[in-house]
Amino acid sequence: VHPNVSQGCQGGCATCSDYNGCLSCKPRLFFVLERIGMKQIGVCLSSCPSGYYGTRYPDINKCAKCKADCDTCFTRNFCTKCKSGFYLYSGKCLEKCPDGLEANNHTMECTNIVHCETSEWSPWSPCMKKGKTCGFKRGNEVRVREIVQHPSARGNPCPATTESRKCVVQRKRCQKEGKGKKNREEKRKKSNTDESKETRQESKGRAARRQNREQRENNNNKTQPKKRKAPNKEQDLAPVDTAH
């Protein structure tokens, strides 16, 4: 250490040297040696850099280097991230994962092997041939199932998700869609026409009956003689004055 030790240091150093940099750090900071060319310079940091882990002592907080295969670590014996070519498992960096585990190249970890899982089969579809359910005797029916868990790299692959089998149906003719639709339209129009015709006929009948009734009433009024005014009996029985 260079004998020229200064107390007025910068960058978090408590004591420092012009040649070796920081010799001690202020409270709560970590002391770490950084290599610059052929020499090492002491620096004080709030947290340890990648490849180091921090340890706290009563007199100094220091950053110690992780193992060679470890990129970041919690302690020297517990790695949290491995360097390229190694897989993390239980705090250790391994070139090959243990039996029953597989290497995950995305996370660079040893993970459990995941096998494929599927749902239950669906019911069989109607018997069909060329997309139709009529006009044939022999066809095919299908059932399907879904994949609910895709496998990992070493997991069991997924089985078929579709099954087909031959089926026999009673042969029947297919009704043409256009003709059937046209017939339905014609029936609907005819029904509406019949209803309208019946309504019109009923209206005409009611009008004719009303007109006939009015005509009869007019005829009766014309042919019936007028009633004569009844004489006043009291006036006819009055005595005649013949004195004059």
TrEMBL record:
Cellular component terms per the entry's GO annotation: extracellular region
Domain Spondin-like TSP1: 116-171
Function as written in the Swiss-Prot or TrEMBL entry: Activator of the canonical Wnt signaling pathway by acting as a ligand for LGR4-6 receptors, which acts as a key regulator of angiogenesis. Upon binding to LGR4-6 (LGR4, LGR5 or LGR6), LGR4-6 associate with phosphorylated LRP6 and frizzled receptors that are activated by extracellular Wnt receptors, triggering the canonical Wnt signaling pathway to increase expression of target genes. Also regulates the canonical Wnt/beta-catenin-dependent pathway and non-canonical Wnt signaling by acting as an inhibitor of ZNRF3, an important regulator of the Wnt signaling pathway.
Location(s), subcellular: Secreted
Subunit structure: Interacts with the extracellular domain of FZD8 and LRP6. It however does not form a ternary complex with FZD8 and LRP6. Interacts with WNT1. Binds heparin. Interacts with LGR4, LGR5 and LGR6.
Designated name of the protein: R-spondin-3
Record GO terms (molecular function): heparin binding; signaling receptor binding
Source organism, top-level taxon: Eukaryota
Basic and acidic residues: compositionally biased ranges: 175-219
Any GO BP annotation: Wnt signaling pathway
Region (Disordered): 174-244
One Pfam family in the UniProt entry: TSP1_spondin
Family designation: Belongs to the R-spondin family.
Organism: Picathartes gymnocephalus (White-necked rockfowl)
Lineage: Eukaryota, Metazoa, Chordata, Craniata, Vertebrata
